[in-house]
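Mods, move this if it's the wrong board.
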Amino acid sequence: MILRTKIKLAVVMIAIIPTAGMCVIGYWSSLAILRHGLQERVQALAAAVAAGVEPEMIAAVGESHDINSPQYEHLEEMIHSVTAENQRGDDPIRFVYLLTPTHQGATSGWDYAVDSDPRQSKAWSAPGTPYDPIHTDRKGVVISSDRPSFDYVHDQQGEWLSGFAPIHSANGGVVGLAAADIPYQDIVNQADHFFELALALAVLCAGAVGFAADRMINRLTAPVGEIRTFIRTVGEGEFSRRLEKPANGEIAEVVGELNEMASKLEGRERLAKENLTLAKNVTRQADQLAAIAQIDLELNKIQDIDILMERILGEARRLIGCDAGSVMLREGDNLLLTYVQNDTLNNKMPLGQRFSAKSVRIPVGGGSISGYAAMTGESVVVDDAYEIPADRPFHFNKAVDQTLGYRTRSVLAVPLRTSTGKNVGVLQLLNPLDENGAPRANFSRSDVEAIQHFASAATVALERAALTRSLVNRMIKMAELRDPSETGPHVDRVAAYSVILYEGWAKRHGVQGHAMEHERDVLRIAARLHDVGKVAIPDAILKKPGRLTADEYSVMQEHTVYGAGLFRDRDSVLDRAAIDVTLHHHERWDGGGYPGDRDGEYLAKAGGSVGLAGNTMKGETIPLFARIVSVADVYDALSSKRQYKEAWPEERVLAEMKVNAGRQFDPELIEILFEQLAEIRLAAARYGAGATEDPVVTSAKSTTVESTTGES
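Not the wrong board. Structure tokens:
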């Protein structure tokens, strides 16, 4: 506590304590005076009533208890008159009553005889009712029978100051008591009123003294207080603060020296901040380069282009920190927008669901930001997409933002170019964030440089993945030429469903991070190749419109072996995964599938006639990837229109899958299928399933939109 406050407090206390003491003393004094005066009054009134009562009448009422007797009526009229006369003035009497020696064993020794105002009910104070009020100190009422007395009692009506006077017979005996009650609370209220007035006066006096002391002390100590505040704020780092210098005196010299000190500290702080910013920038750039090098290694391990594009977008956003983004591949004169991420919109989605977008084609020469970046091969940075000058060669479409409830501000579009200068796509990022996840004004120069370096590494990985995708597509195209039911969209959907099922399985089994991503990558490619072995099945069987004979069906089953034979060298993880999927995706959980577990023997015979009699595979002995693709393949087959059937409604498909859980399918994977229906529906819409729902509008469990770039 500062000295100024201590002085003020002392002055106020000096004013308050004596006044408060006087208030308390005055309160108790006034209470005692009032109480003494009223004691004398109730005793005098009781004595006056006792003197006016004929002993024979009170004795007769006490013996008969008859309220209709002339004696009772005479006494009742008298005490009513006395009560009425004494209810005027500041201290009115509430009750006047007569008591007789008890016949009922009352603790006070007395019974009611006549009461001027029966309490609560006539029976309560009727003649002969025991007079048993409670003494305020709980020791019982003490009534003198030979002289006037008083006591503090209370009953069901309240607390009273009661006066008593004996009624003597002719021979000097006591035949009754006259009594009068005055509300004790009235006494207290009068004293309280006086105390409140005294307390109010004390508060006013203390306030006046305090106000005067405050003004005087403030005037004397103001310079010291300002200096103290200045020292504290400068000590907390506010070096720009300055004191107003007095005209002269010693305080003026102190103020001048303190201001000079603050100026020097401000200059040193500015230099320290510049050095810290420089150090942070250097460190950040070094970290970004190290991160890009590590990401480059990891990207080149991913073989599936879909998973690679998703990873590229996620790593780019993490590298510089931003809320949203998209990655687009170039197809001729268009950019195909397929992968979009947006944290703000994801947070608005129901729990367990995520924002997704329908594929959109953006013309390279259409005046969009990303199209301009692809056309010129130059990075484009926009600080506010809504304020692009009219003379710029690109624009931004606000309509998409308005539809989504999103606000695009800063935009960074970086072209993805090969070493030969060929443009393969554009990486676009939106709304940068700081280290704490809060929005920052715009993309910095270091952000642009980091993403340009990153884009070079990402482009190499995309070229390699595109080559892998091309080879896989050619194999699928060969199968499609032989079997029109094995279309590109079908294998894409099976692959997408398989990845979704695997992600659900991995979450349940604690597989996370790069391990899960690697398995996803391999599974997507292997799933697309699940029926590639059908290229070896004769057309007469493969394209037969009717039901196959037993021998024909046995030949058809060989497509699993022929497919596995394409990868029998087992040179890579993908080869091993492709063997598991192509060979075993028709195995059943209950062991009734084909071809069994003697894959070594089958692969050795893959070039010629293959007998399929082998050992049974069932349950978890079936490879996980094969169990997953089995569920995805049947789900898509039932959901899609084929030459020999119409597409089943979703309800029928799900019922069929559920009834075969634990028979044909791994029951855990069927549970995951139902848990991930929202994601399954999005994938079906993306790859053109035979469903009738429109993927561009909001569905029951997910939302898809044209674009989140404003460039559709």
